[in-house]
Write a structure and sequence with these properties.
The chain is α/β, with parallel strands linked by helices. It has a single domain (2-211), classed as Aldolase class I (TIM Barrel), CATH 3.20.20.70. The chain has eleven helices and eight strands. It is globular, with a radius of gyration of 19 Å. The chain binds SN-glycerol-3-phosphate.
Length: 217
Amino acid sequence: MKFFVDTADTAEIKSLASSGLLDGVTTNPSLVAKTGKKFTEIIREICAIVAGPVSAEVAATDYDGMMREAYVLREIAKNVTIKVPLTPDGLRACNRLTGDGTMVNVTLCFSAAQALLAAKAGASFVSPFVGRLDDVGESGMALIADIMQIYNAYHFKTEVLVASVRSPMHVVEAAKLGAHVATLPPPVLRSLFNHPLTDKGLAAFLADWGKTGQTIA
Ligand code: G3P
């Protein structure tokens, strides 16, 4: 499973990239707004930090506007992935862009039928939002299971990018279903490292090592 980080905060991205565990980055207009910085500059900075796919979302909602913005964004760096909404115009733009060899992430996916359309439009990634489905009393993970079943049945190349991830359990459940990518807010990515028995065990080992009076040299 690939790990992307879901943020536009370049300091966070730098810090997480140094772990060697980061395969890509996703941003969205809400995350960009939080930074107060110029969108194209943020994408340029992120692409210089991370070699993997960096999702940059169009703001237009009509086909021509999306294409105009996509052409600007994809000039920034080779690893820019154009993010389009799961709408008729978004999927038309997806079809056109992937035909040109541009990576496309189809976002705001909330049903298996929508995911099927994204795959047929040739998307590189589809982003089902699991947390937002859980928030309204539906099951985000049931959607991932349905999409994986459909994509596997037809050998679609589109990668399932699990988004709106809120907890380590979301990550583990998505991995058990074979989802290709999870995009994680930085706190969730950091929380994957944590277990109280790891901390307790390490403290005990260090205390016992201290008693030996030895150094490793
Ligand atoms: O970037 C898309 C998605 O991950 C947003 O998540 O937490 O705003 O539902 P959230």
